[in-house]
Every structure is written in C-alpha cells, then in structure tokens.
Amino acid sequence: MVEMPKEFVPVKVETMGEPQTFTGNRGLAIEEPLIFEIGSPETSGVDFEDPLTPALFPRGEGEEAAALSSGGEGDSGVLSPLGERDRVRGDSFANRLGGLERSEPIGLPGLSEPEAVRHYVRLSQKNYSIDTGIFPLGSCTMKHNPRLNEKMARLAGFADIHPLQPEKTVQGALALMQELSRWLLELTGMHAVALSPKAGAHGELCGMIAIRAALEARGEADVRRTVLVPDSAHGTNPATAALLGFNVRAVAARADGTVSAEAVRGKLGPDVAAMMLTNPNTCGMFEPEVVEIAAALHEAGAYLYCDGANFNAIAGKVRPGDLGADAMHINLHKTFSTPHGGGGPGSGPVVLSQALAPFAPVPFVAKEGEGLTLVEHAGAAGETAHPFGRLAAFHGQMGMFVRALAYMMSHGADGIRQASEDAVLNANYVRARLAGALSQPFGDRPCMHEVLFDDRFLKGTGVSTLDFAKALIDEGFHPMTVYFPLVVSGAMLVEPTESESKQSLDLFIDAICKLAGAAISGDTGRFTAAPRFAPRERLDETRAAREPILRYKPPLPKA
Amino acid sequence: MRYLPHTDSERREMLDAIGVTGIDALFAEVPPSKLLRELPDLPLKRSEMAVERALESLAALNVPAGSVPFFAGCGAYKHHVPATVDSVIQRPEFMTAYTPYQPEIAQGTLQYLFEFQSQVAALTGMEVANASMYDGSTAAAEAVLMAHRLTKRSKAVLAGGLHPHYRAVIETISHYSGHSVGGATASPAQSFEAQCDSETSCVVVQMPDVFGRVSDLTALAAKAHAAGALLVVVVTEAVSFGALKSPGAMGADIVAAEGQSIGNGLNFGGPYLGLFATRQKFLRQMPGRLCGQTVDRDGRRGFVLTLSTREQHIRREKATSNICTNSGLCALAFTAHLTLLGEAGLRKLGSLNHASAVALAEALAQVSGVEIVTPHFFNEFAIKTPKPGAEVVDKLADLGVIGGVPASRLWPNDASLANLIIVAATEVTTENDIAAYRGALSEVLHG
C-alpha cells in the first residue's frame, strides 16, 4: 500500500559480475521501447471497410425484409442501391461538424497488430501478479481471480448492454443486480444497498453522504461537524471526511492496537456525526469492543461507518449489521475476487442500516409489477425514500457485479465461510512460524486475516523495512505492505489470503526466516542492492517527483 | 471448494503449528453471541457448470446491443473493440497485478500508464493527464472541486447541454461539500451563455453536448477567463477527439471525459474510465494517480507513481481527493485500442462515425413528422417526433430496434423535452440498421 519516500542512493551496484549484453536484453527479459518510439502516425492495426466496398456476404432474408419495410406511409425516400451510409461515406458528402473539424495533428503513434501484441506481451512480462506467485499485500487482499468470473462477465447479455436501453430489454441484468444485493445484505445483516459506488473510497463517500443526509433530515447537519477516525485508519477515511467538510478528530489506540469504547466515549460530544472504523482493523485485529462502540455512538446521536476493506476476514462468520454498523462499503475486488487490474477498476457497493436506508442514492433496482425497474430519479423513489442524490452517471460496475456474483455462487454460504476461516488460518500460520524471527508490535497474539510486524528485528542491522521488501523481490515474492499502518514503526503487513497453499506459505516463510538471519548476521549487501534480479534496479522516486516527466516528449533534434 | 487449496489434514496441521485446537479460537475476539453458525437463506457451493448455467440464463433475458439495430448513446457508445484488446487485458500479469507500488516489478503497468497519459494529453490538446478516474461523471465532479481549489471560489456554472446524470453527480458532491451550482436548464435549441460572477470558479460545458451539438467554445473560454473562472470541458464520446477540434485548442483549462468508447464495451454502465487532463501549471491540484518517468540505479529509464504527496495515503485529510484507485484495466483497454488505431485509424474512425450519423439523420428526416433538432453534430443528435419519446422508444423495442434514449428518461419533469429522442450511430451501424430504424419509426408513428 504505502511506501514513504526515501532518499535515493545513486550508486551503481555491480551485481552480475558478467559482461552486459549488447542489446540490454537478458534472455527472456526483453527491453521494450515506448509506443512513441516504435509507431508512426500512418501505421494502423485496425482495418475499416472502405466506403463503397460491396458487402462481404449477400444480405440475409431478414435484412432484406428490414430494408423493404422502410417504405412506410409518408416515407418518400428511396434507398440508393449503395445504401445511405455508404453513399455519404464517400469523399463528397458535406459534413455537419459546423466548421469544428480537427485540422491540427494529434500526435498519436499507431502499431500494426503483431507489433501491438508484442509490445503489450513484453510489457506484461515485467509485471508480478497474483497468477505469478504469492502477493501478500496487507489490507489489499490479493486472492485468486477465478477465470469463470471473466467468462461470465463477457457474456454478450451482460457485456454488450447499454445502461439506458429500455428496461424491458435488460430484465436479466436487473435481476442479477438484485441477486447480488440479496447476497450482500444477507452476508452483512444490513437493510439496503447502494450498488453505484465505483471503488472503496467512492463507497466511503456514499456512506458518509448518507450520514450527512440523515443528519440534515434531523436538522443537525450544521451542528454535527466532527468525524472520529482512529490513527490506524486507511488514508481514504480522513480524506473522505474532509471532502465532505467534516473535521477529523483522531482516536488513539490502546497498547494492543485496538480502540476502546472508553476512548470513543471520551471523544464523543454533540458535535460528532460519526466514527469511521475499520474492522478487523489495519493492524489485523478484530475490534473486541465494536458492539460497545456502536452503542456509545448511537446513544450520542452519531453513526458508525465501517470501512469494509477487511470484510474478507469475517464474511460468513459475523455480520457487521449485528455489530451495530450503520454503513459499510464492500470492496468487491477484495472480498469477492474481482481482479485488481493493476489498480482498478474497483467496485464499492455500500450497505446501509435501517436508519440510513431511506437516503440511499439513485439509481437502484425496485420491483414493479411482475418485473424490475430502475429508479433513476428522486421523484420516482416513493414516499418513504429520500435519495441523497447521485454518485455516478450510471448504475455501477456491472462487469464487477457479474464477477462477484459468480464468486459468491461458486462458494456458497459454506464456501465463503471456509474462505474467511482459511484466510485467518493462513495469516496465523505465518505469524506463528515467523514469531521467532521477526518482531510484532503488539506481542504474539492471534490475528485475523493479516499479521503485522514492525522493524525492531532489523534494529542495528543497517537494513530498513524497504530494503527487506526489495530483497523479497529477488527471492521471487511480491513484498508485503510496508510502512502501513502508520502507527507502527517500519510496518510490514502480511496478508496471504485463503488462496495460498501450505506449500506456498512454507516457501515464503522459509525465505523470510533466511533473510532475517542474513540481515542480523551482517549480510546487508543483498538488501541494500536489492532488487538485483527484477526488470529494474531501485528507481529514483525523488527525481521523478522533483522534475516530473508525465508524458512522452520527442527528443530534440541533434544540432 | 475448488478455489481453496487446503485439505482438512493440512488445516489440522496448521492449527497445531499455531497452537490452537480449532479455528474459532482464532475468532475469540468476536463476541460469541454474534458469531454465525449458518446463513440459511443463502445457497451452498456450486460447481462451475451450475454457476455457468444460472448466469447464462440471466444473460439470455437481456437484448445485447450487437444483436439488434442499435442507436442508444448519451454517455455510453456501442463501438467495435478489436479482438486484440480483450486478449491484452486478459494477460494475467496485467489483470491480476496490484497498483504498482513496487515499481521494479510493475514496469509493465507503469509503462502503459505513461503511454496512456501521453495519449490522453495529445487527444485533449492539454499538457498533462492523469492515470484515469472512475468514469466521466466522477471526473467531471473532481474537475469542479479542482477548479474550486485553484480559484479559491466555490460556485460552478453548468451548461444546459451537460448530461443530466453528470449534472446530478456534480450537484450531489457540491451540496455535501458546501459548494454551490448554478447554470442553465436543458434545451436543445438555445446556445449557452455563461453568467459568471465573482464567486464562479468554473464553467462546465459538454462537447458534443448531450443533444449531440457541437459548438465552438473559444468565446466561452475567453468569457470565463475574463471573469477569473476556468473552463471545464466534458466529453462523453472519446471517438470525437479524432474528428473535432480539441478542447485544449478551444481554451479548456480542465478536460474531464468518458473513455469507454475506445477499447471498452458497454457493460451496462461500468466499469468505464474517466480521462482527466489539464494545464501543467495546475498539476499540483490535480486529483488521482500520476505515473512519471525516472531512472534506476543503473541509469536505465523506468517509471514510478509520482507526486503522491497530493494523495490520500500520504496527505490524509489534506489530500486533493479521496480517490485511491484508477481504472487500470479499462485504461489498458483504452491505450491498447488507441495504439492499434493510431492517428490514421482514429481519424478514419471519427469520419466513419460522422458519416453513419449523417446518413441516419438523412434517413430519419424522411419519416414524416420527424424533425432533426441538432443542426451540427458528431455521431449523435436529437430528433423530435409527434409522439412522446418514451412511448416511441418502447414501441421501437417491440419491433426489435433500440431506437435511442428518450429525453424524458433523463429529464422526467421537463415537458418541453418529452417528444425528443437522442440517437447515436457509430462505425458498427450498417445501412440495414438505418433502414430498419427508419421503417420501424415510420410504423410506430404512422402504422
């Protein structure tokens, strides 16, 4: 997740001891230029039919009939033999662009299809992925992405339908959204769901606006201007609260990394609108006093927003609604296996308690007679609903809904529960086996789906958390989350997920033990020089930020 | 369960290694009364075949755009996506990677983001672009918030031709973040005259607008700038960049666009990708991820996420936005398709789209009682029929034609727009599709 900027050491480290290749390539590791360096404005990898080209196949009967039926009443036009479009596609037709046609060049390179395929395949080979190996990023939940999900999302009946085509032509899509909603509500014990948020942080915005709307309805929006956020929270929590004009009041954790109801009570007042709490929290602990915290908030007239980023630890085991949550976003790309895609697209549906349900945004699916309808405007929402507005142009990440539902149906209630248990089992197995080699900030006690270590075991070695992470790259692993949560010095947050076999975990654990031993025994070169075997050595992030180069600029011609 | 590797004996072995007797010992912090024993209302695990059958039966209840003469647009467009694009985005190394926080093993993602940013800047005629936003509508809302930060003012003026859903997104975020919104009501006939005052941070105008109109924004930009406000240009049809003068060339300060049209399917509204571009001098107030070029220790070119001191994971409540993602895989589809098209291909695609729309307009104008309302357009325009648009589109669907979006679906309370239908044609539109529409429309209106 978070990597703090670190001073860059521009030292060339001799790692290979072998002569460099002439090409800069190393076997399968092939350098790849930018498209701007290999393409040209004239090249294209897409062919279009030229105007006036005869059709590839003769017209079918149905098409013939359709063409003939155009001669309705008052319809004086006659189709030209070439067809209307092909006639105007010729060079001679007068355009209707109102004099705004583009005259200036754009500056886009094109590649033929084989060049393009090779370009992207070579780029892809420079990436680590969950399909390559363990990707134990704490808080990010890199679990297996089933290929069935991909296949289902590509069915034309889901992938090739328009968000504004007539509702009677998309009843299956609306039914899918309703079925997904049912699963989400059953698994969370909540009352309503807003499917439209496009990612976790967008879901936070949705939940917090619902809280604002509820406070407005109570006439208290101007008074309740403060949101409580624990120090260990994701950065999105305070950012979301601030975006909505709330003041952020920090709540300190106890010595064991969890939040006490007493600490929350101490921060409560008539100015508090809500608390944003991640449960299990970002230290990998279940908040043991969450029920008391919710009760204290409700008693004080405030709401509990649950950051659902870590719902994958407890899905099928405990329901946030039963714990007193008023709103929670669910990252479908974490708990329900939709691909992270190198940084998105995500999907962040929000479940709401009875108190907040009336304020759910448009659009949402509702029953209408025998069928389903989309409520797209507040005016059509009915008397009891008071939608707070709209968060996105359309109905949410349908492609992700299909994938998530395919995952849910494959697991079933029993499989979802087993997946949560295995995720917790795996994290604790890593914890137990590494307890002797690494240091834990809050002592050796059971964790949920992720286990947090700090950098005390590296003290005096000259090896930093970042160096340690980079050395893991050389060993063939993606590093864990480092320097998050911020409340722990040199944090390393390991989330193996339920997708890792015991054999995979053992390999990872053994490598970490050996690296920890190397650091302590003074074998620091393998850390400070790391990564040595990745497509790039350590990159100069300071330079990137100081002199930002954010787009390709052609080199200046040589004088 | 096929996705879970452990056998029961391995689970026992691991519990032993942990030193607990059962799994619930690891859930000891959960209040025992809240621990679930079962979820009786949800089904149990299913085979791949069974899930496939169930979902296929739901998919079969929908009418795919590619199966009928299809003319709906209004922010989502039916285009052809080359087979290569889907093959590229299904490369597991792209699809199953995380955000490139460890750049040494994420150069694939980072390089395509750098190429993407370069392409988006070129298309929009702007100096810098980010690594994408959720979609066009949320990009537009972020553009408004960015204009507020830059001008230290708090009112956005929205053109009447702005997609009403985009308007609603901007209004929602403005209301709850303490900002105000003004502007014109929707009308396909009136041209937009922005009323800027000393509180106006930006004028937001869509091009082509929701009725498909194209117009020169140069004078509007000058007027906004004279009042100390910025011009935000919203584009919902990215293919238009290949045919029309760029927003940058007309004086835009921020461009917020929907990129779905290039490389991405309709997907019932998502996932899509927002394009976001601006001037270099506004860079530090830009929301979202940015990829930048740098070098590694060996002096070799490489790419990293950069300027993250704007972002929530570093700045927390002082961040420029709460956004924590981009639309990575959709951006990959966009950049791969655009790389295949190239400049020549995009221009060709633009002219084919326009030609299809002109042909459609000529055909529909021949149906008696139908008026083409939009004089100048790219690939989308509004028609006025003698009957309510919703009724016409509904009956067209019964005849197997998806005949566009009735304006009443977007503005249910505006009687003046009730008889309008917004129709789009693209390179996939065939002459037979056009003939079928014309025939069906004639039948619905006069049959």
Describe the protein's topology.
The complex is a heterodimer of chains A (559) and B (447).
Chain A: H1 35-38, H2 61-68, H3 84-89, H4 113-124, H5 147-153, H6 156-159, H7 171-188, E1 192-194, H8 200-217, E2 226-230, H9 236-243, E3 247-251, H10 261-267, E4 272-278, H11 290-299, E5 303-307, H12 320-323, E6 327-329, E7 350-352, E8 364-368, E9 371-375, H13 398-434, E10 451-453, H14 465-474, E11 481-482, E12 492-494, H15 502-520, H16 525-528, H17 541-546
Parallel strand pairs in A: 2-3, 2-4, 4-5, 5-6
Antiparallel strand pairs in A: 1-7, 6-7, 8-9, 10-12, 11-12
Chain B: H1 8-18, H2 48-59, H3 83-89, H4 92-95, H5 107-124, E1 128-129, H6 136-151, E2 155-158, H7 164-176, E3 180-183, E4 200-206, H8 218-226, E5 230-235, E6 254-258, E7 274-278, E8 291-295, E9 301-305, H9 312-315, H10 328-365, E10 371-372, E11 380-384, H11 389-398, E12 405-406, H12 407-410, E13 420-424, H13 431-446
Parallel strand pairs in B: 2-3, 2-4, 4-5, 5-6
Antiparallel strand pairs in B: 1-7, 6-7, 8-9, 10-11, 11-13, 12-13
Highlighted features:
heterodimer, A: 559 residues, alpha/beta, Aspartate Aminotransferase, domain 2, Aspartate Aminotransferase, domain 1, globular, B: 447 residues, 2 domains, seven-stranded mixed β-sheet, four-stranded antiparallel β-sheet, 13 helices, 13 strands, 13% strand
CATH architecture identity of the domain at 152-407 in chain A? 3-Layer(aba) Sandwich
Rounded Rg of chain B: 25 Å
Calculate the terminal CA-CA distance of chain A, rounded to whole Å: 45 Å
State mean pLDDT of chain A (0 to 100 scale): 90
Distance between the termini of chain B: 57 Å
Largest sheet of chain B: 7 strands, mixed
Q: Which CATH class of the largest domain in chain B is shown?
A: Alpha Beta
Q: What share of the residues of chain B lie within helices?
A: 25-40%
Helix content class of chain A: 25-40%
Question: Helices and strands of chain A: which structural class?
Answer: alpha/beta
Number of strands of chain A: 12
**Global morphology of chain A:** globular
Q: Largest inter-chain interface? A: A-B, 233 and 236 residues
* Uncertain stretches of chain A: 52-82
Radius of gyration from the alpha-carbon trace of chain A, in angstroms = 28 Å
- What global shape of chain B is seen? globular
SSE order of chain A, as H and E?
HHHHHHHEHEHEHEHEHEEEEHEHEEHHH
- Find the CATH superfamily of the domain at 152-407 in chain A: Type I PLP-dependent aspartate aminotransferase-like (Major domain)
- Regarding quaternary structure, what we see is heterodimer
CATH superfamily of the largest domain in chain B: Type I PLP-dependent aspartate aminotransferase-like (Major domain)
